[in-house]
């Protein structure tokens, strides 16, 4: 237990801060900030964390609404779930190269945060880590390959950003030749991205990998890719055409849903099923040919494709899901 009555410390873990100071310096004896240690400390405006610190626990600064700045030392390796949740006055934060994981909703609701730099040490970013960060417009990446190797879980954001590779805004993205997979949510909602070049080394495109990339107009998928994940290109509103290579055997649910400018798409003979909602709300799609390899068309697969005037369904198809062509008013 610390001699300082404002801090409850046990075995190097800061259990609770009970003081009312606006500016707080954590004692050097602390090695980790425990769960809820500064929970709802409404008066806290700034904090200095000692170099002895290795982790920031779950909900450590939860709803510290007056916190405007914090310096995280190079000794910290993990930022826990909800660590800075609801810190609505936090305008900037530097994540050091030592950090390997950023937890679930770690910065959710930090509505004054405008940009953040993700170091190449980070290997996991939790679900909705930056959700509700209404002012966050820039994500700065220090290493593209390292970024592509991050485990994003399902999703990591709910807003649209400009991505920067070091100091350059990413508009035309070339994936490095040694990358084998594009992870879940890797460039989800990257509003500045206009084109992507994917090398032959890539075999899979993850869930929501490019979902919501509103400026994306073209993409070439190489013959090496075998699977396209759920929502991989959903709501890419500027994408006009796409060719799926013969190597692809599976297309996830909602993969191209909401691609409202998509006028044509080629489905290869390697595909055996068209999943649920895959082309839902592709309102500019006028015609499509389904190859003989397809045996099933999923629920709402072409729902609300209002300009679809013709579709060829082969004899190989044995099942068509409910509402597969509902509200295709031009058919």
UniProtKB/TrEMBL annotation:
InterPro entries: LRR_5, LRR_dom_sf, Surface_bspA-like. It comes from the Bacteria. Pfam families: LRR_5. Signal peptide: none annotated. This is Leucine Rich repeat-containing domain protein. It comes from Ruminococcus callidus ATCC 27760. The lineage of its organism: Bacteria, Bacillati, Bacillota, Clostridia, Eubacteriales.
